[in-house]
Design goal:
Elements: H1 15-25, H2 30-36, H3 43-50, H4 59-69, H5 73-79, H6 106-121
Helix pairs in contact: 1-6, 2-3
Domain HTH cro/C1-type: 19-76
Protein name: Helix-turn-helix transcriptional regulator
Pfam family, one: HTH_31
Length: 123
């Protein structure tokens, strides 16, 4: 098989686009996220992350967003380019009616969000 026809794994979604899609799915505005994080993440800073101007936000920012959005912190760390070697993280609050316990890949999570938006648009 030559290099042109080799199947390559799908690239990871861009961190900024991923966070924007999660925020939109949660129905939150930038200022609402700022308030929910108790101003740990300003709306301007989150906007820069979502628009790709900031590619590697601090772990503290990612942790705050993971809690507010109820998503996997380790996944955000990997998407931001941090090496995650330990599962000794503080557990997230319980999430109800969610797929977090399935340990979805970023690609699967993005596809599920896309499908959910489609389903909601048909109502």
């Amino acid at each position: 098989m030559n290099q042109d026809t080799e199947q390559r794994p799908a690239p990871l979604p861009n961190l900024g686009h991923y966070l924007a899609s999660i925020r939109e799915d949660r129905g939150m505005k930038l200022r609402e996220v700022e308030a929910a994080t108790k101003r740990e993440v300003s709306n301007a800073y989150l906007s820069q992350i979502e628009n790709g101007k900031i590619k590697k936000p601090s772990p503290n920012v990612l942790h705050s967003l993971a809690i507010v959005y109820r998503i996997n912190y380790e996944q955000l760390m990997v998407m931001a380019g941090y090496a995650v070697t330990s599962k000794a993280q503080k557990p997230h609050p319980p999430v109800h009616n969610s797929f977090t316990e399935l340990n979805l890949t970023p690609e699967e999570d993005a596809k599920l969000l896309e499908y959910l938006r489609f389903l909601r648009s048909t109502k």
